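In the lab's daily routine, each protein ends up as an entry in a very long ledger. A line of letters takes care of the sequence, but it says nothing directly about the fold. The three-dimensional part falls to structure tokens, numbers that each stand for a local backbone shape. The outcome of that step, for a single protein, is printed below.
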Amino acid sequence: MSDLTDRIDAHMRDVADFPKPGVVFKDITPLLADPQTFADVVAAMADAGRDATGAVVVDKVVGMEARGFIFAAPVALALGAGFVPVRKPGKLPWRTDSVSYELEYASETLEMHHDALAPGDRVLIVDDVLATGGTAKATAELVTRGGGHVHALAVLMELSFLPGRATIPDIPVVSLRTV
């Protein structure tokens, strides 16, 4: 994994004061532009949906708008699982369930189609970054309300100086890079 970690680091760009002053944004676009690193990241994230023998143990992969989509859809394909988008209000065309939650400086709402999951579906949640954990917690709540069971959360990067894991203590987290 250290080779992949080194390549992730080499393909990440810090952007100061984006989207607001004081925030250092982790830009993943250089990573996405390198097809081998992108493919290896997807493969490593997909491993979170397999057991020790390599067998797939999830039925669906749930990805959150917007950067989570970039990773979740190819992870779902790699696992032979369905992909379920979780979006901001008004973006899904069918009946939805919604969860509102608090972020560091604002509140947000996420929605998932009411019928996106079958009862008992095992779900891998995929996102780009685990920070405060609010988005992951809200998504896990949507999965549970939809009849699914959260198997794990897989992220490209975890910001260890924020309380992400503490916010979702019952969900196993697989992070490819911790800063």
